[in-house]
Amino acid sequence: MYKTFTMELAGRTLRVDVDRVAKQANGAAFMHYGDTVVLSTATASDKPREGIDFFPLSVEYEEKLYAVGKIPGGFNKREGKASENAILTSRVIDRPMRPLFPKDYRNDVTLNNMVMAVDPECSPELTAMLGSAIATAISDIPFDGPCATTQVGLINGEFIFNPSNAQKAVSDLQLTVASTSEKVIMIEAGANEVPEAKMLEAIFAAHELNQKVIGFINQIVAECGKEKHEYESCAVPQELFDAIKEIVKPEEMEEAVFTDVKQDREENIKKITEKLEEAFAEKEEWLAVLGEAIYQYEKKTVRKMILKDHKRPDGREITQIRPLAAEVDIVPRVHGSAMFTRGQTQICTITTLAPLSDSQRIDGLDELETSKRYMHHYNFPSYSVGETKPSRGPGRREIGHGALAERALVPVLPSEAEFPYAIRTVSETFESNGSTSQASICASTMSLMAAGVPIRKPVAGISCGLVTGDTDDDYLVLTDIQGLEDFFGDMDFKVAGTDKGITAIQMDIKIHGLTKQIIEEAIARTREARMYILNEIMIPCIGAPRAEVGTFAPKIRQIQIDPQKIGDVVGQRGKTINAVIEQTGVKIDISDEGAVSVCGTDLAKLEEAIRLIEIITTDFAEGQVFEGKVIAIKEFGAFLEFAPGKEGMVHISKISKERINRVEDVLTLGDVVKVVCLGKDKMGRISFSMKDVK
């Protein structure tokens, strides 16, 4: 027999079945939230993986298209690689869970979440987050949980907890907050310039609701939880630490890491490593963990310098930002380009504009978003950190950083009606020493403005770090963390926004949560830094979007036609529209509502295409003057083509004011002439005249 547990969560029933399915996993929770169904499992290997110095956690979020009644597209007709949404969801599950496992645990752990049914009222992503926490908490895998997650929307100034798809579509905020029983452990947000105070209010409202969920999980654990298994600790022996400190004194390690040049620091650590390898050449068991020991020694040194001495490795003050630089138009012929540099972090972003038909189509579980016109892609080549390895395409980190920058910029983009373009920005990492994702937001803002995209406001991003001591009050928040402070610190708190408010947040931590005081200070610190970057660096470089798109960018004009006339423009089997395209060389997109976008690089050709479409959709009326090309000559008159699929006839008597015997005496095939519409004749046909044109 299996056990079922239920609670009311944000107006819907959350049901968890334990021991109903997947009994061979270490822990399994069969989750039902409304009609959304997710199977969450937690599985661990029996022994640690050899030869590694990290915790091998894998988080999977599997989108099964049968969950929304779809058959996958393509030839294979089965789910392929994970979608971008699945990757981002896996990352959101990973971030709060990872710090709660023991630091010296090296057994492989896989958290798998399989979405089996989707109710538009109940988020499958949220259900999977809760499912992973429950499956791990009831398993025998060592875990310092439970944790819980809540999503928050903001509609007309009111918070909506765990909003439905329909509510998300009109919400000014999409916030996800994970908590333990004491502290906030993860924050991720996209927002329409939500003020800092309102964001803080939303975060702690979610934290409060998380406590109710944690109480529910504790009930499940009390009844169904397994005893946590013993494991082989992979901690570095204390004797090795003691031996290292005899050879490399603390002041020598401080001197090695206290430099603002990343390459110099790496070279110093390399020399220390070589000295220790030589000293321990006969102790193979120590050599196996020497790299981890040096890492921890370096980490303790950096943390002590920051927390106790208020000294940062590059000599900056606690609130000081690294040297900044910004420039635009560094790459010719592209539609827009900009470079943003912060210390040894350097990002170049290229903007490309295209017709709306080039928008990305999305095939997934989300019925709301089937396409997107703005795409931000982030690349992190190995040379940016002085390494050499082949490029295998974007990994989860690159996809996550690109999505964060995209989320930060979407709120300031113009509507399709204002700017009928598909927009792609690509951030290339030239150098990396911390917070490249936030530098890519700054570079992308300037690149968009340089490309002539009329964004409403510039967006900047910055990251704060944290070093904590033994008590909640013993901590130090660092503005603009570099790579070393990220590696050895406790937090990477990224915040992007305008001068009005926040557009995106992503918080990663390595400890068991943050107090309210730390979160408030971090958000205040990021706003202060953001204002400096905007006002002192970005706006002086490019203060406003350019009035027109660049020379090499496509020009798009949009007109509105009667939706009933779409068939006239398209023609039978596309004959009419293809003729316009062939004649003018433009690209034409027509929406179901009759919005016609004409795209081309030659303005004259573009205007010609619009003229032809307007003629095609115009009902001939008496007195209208048109220009047409002679396409056929008969004894009784000439046939003219005014636009593809739009023809008319001029009777021989209406060609010239003087009497003519033959049409050929005045007209030849291919002539372009002006005519005026005379209305309908006695037989109901539209007639035209050349001689009556005024």
UniProtKB/TrEMBL annotation:
<comment type="similarity">
    <text>Belongs to the polyribonucleotide nucleotidyltransferase family.</text>
</comment>
<dbReference type="GO" id="GO:0006396">
    <property type="term" value="P:RNA processing"/>
</dbReference>
<dbReference type="Pfam" id="PF01138">
    <property type="entry name" value="RNase_PH"/>
</dbReference>
<feature type="domain" description="S1 motif">
    <location>
        <begin position="623"/>
        <end position="691"/>
    </location>
</feature>
<keyword id="KW-0808">Transferase</keyword>
<dbReference type="GO" id="GO:0005829">
    <property type="term" value="C:cytosol"/>
</dbReference>
<dbReference type="Pfam" id="PF00013">
    <property type="entry name" value="KH_1"/>
</dbReference>
<dbReference type="InterPro" id="IPR003029">
    <property type="entry name" value="S1_domain"/>
</dbReference>
<dbReference type="InterPro" id="IPR020568">
    <property type="entry name" value="Ribosomal_Su5_D2-typ_SF"/>
</dbReference>
<dbReference type="InterPro" id="IPR015848">
    <property type="entry name" value="PNPase_PH_RNA-bd_bac/org-type"/>
</dbReference>
<dbReference type="InterPro" id="IPR003101">
    <property type="entry name" value="KIX_dom"/>
</dbReference>
<dbReference type="InterPro" id="IPR012340">
    <property type="entry name" value="NA-bd_OB-fold"/>
</dbReference>
<keyword id="KW-0175">Coiled coil</keyword>
<dbReference type="InterPro" id="IPR036612">
    <property type="entry name" value="KH_dom_type_1_sf"/>
</dbReference>
<dbReference type="Pfam" id="PF03725">
    <property type="entry name" value="RNase_PH_C"/>
</dbReference>
<dbReference type="GO" id="GO:0000287">
    <property type="term" value="F:magnesium ion binding"/>
</dbReference>
<dbReference type="InterPro" id="IPR004088">
    <property type="entry name" value="KH_dom_type_1"/>
</dbReference>
<dbReference type="GO" id="GO:0006402">
    <property type="term" value="P:mRNA catabolic process"/>
</dbReference>
<dbReference type="GO" id="GO:0006355">
    <property type="term" value="P:regulation of DNA-templated transcription"/>
</dbReference>
<feature type="binding site">
    <location>
        <position position="486"/>
    </location>
    <ligand>
        <name>Mg(2+)</name>
    </ligand>
</feature>
<dbReference type="InterPro" id="IPR015847">
    <property type="entry name" value="ExoRNase_PH_dom2"/>
</dbReference>
<feature type="binding site">
    <location>
        <position position="492"/>
    </location>
    <ligand>
        <name>Mg(2+)</name>
    </ligand>
</feature>
<dbReference type="InterPro" id="IPR012162">
    <property type="entry name" value="PNPase"/>
</dbReference>
<dbReference type="GO" id="GO:0004654">
    <property type="term" value="F:polyribonucleotide nucleotidyltransferase activity"/>
</dbReference>
<feature type="domain" description="KIX">
    <location>
        <begin position="223"/>
        <end position="302"/>
    </location>
</feature>
<dbReference type="InterPro" id="IPR036345">
    <property type="entry name" value="ExoRNase_PH_dom2_sf"/>
</dbReference>
<dbReference type="GO" id="GO:0003723">
    <property type="term" value="F:RNA binding"/>
</dbReference>
<keyword id="KW-0694">RNA-binding</keyword>
<dbReference type="InterPro" id="IPR001247">
    <property type="entry name" value="ExoRNase_PH_dom1"/>
</dbReference>
<dbReference type="InterPro" id="IPR036456">
    <property type="entry name" value="PNPase_PH_RNA-bd_sf"/>
</dbReference>
<keyword id="KW-0479">Metal-binding</keyword>
<dbReference type="GO" id="GO:0003712">
    <property type="term" value="F:transcription coregulator activity"/>
</dbReference>
<keyword id="KW-0460">Magnesium</keyword>
<dbReference type="GO" id="GO:0000175">
    <property type="term" value="F:3'-5'-RNA exonuclease activity"/>
</dbReference>
<keyword id="KW-0548">Nucleotidyltransferase</keyword>
<feature type="coiled-coil region">
    <location>
        <begin position="262"/>
        <end position="289"/>
    </location>
</feature>
<comment type="function">
    <text>Involved in mRNA degradation. Catalyzes the phosphorolysis of single-stranded polyribonucleotides processively in the 3'- to 5'-direction.</text>
</comment>
<dbReference type="InterPro" id="IPR027408">
    <property type="entry name" value="PNPase/RNase_PH_dom_sf"/>
</dbReference>
<dbReference type="Pfam" id="PF00575">
    <property type="entry name" value="S1"/>
</dbReference>
<keyword id="KW-0963">Cytoplasm</keyword>
<dbReference type="Pfam" id="PF03726">
    <property type="entry name" value="PNPase"/>
</dbReference>
<dbReference type="InterPro" id="IPR004087">
    <property type="entry name" value="KH_dom"/>
</dbReference>
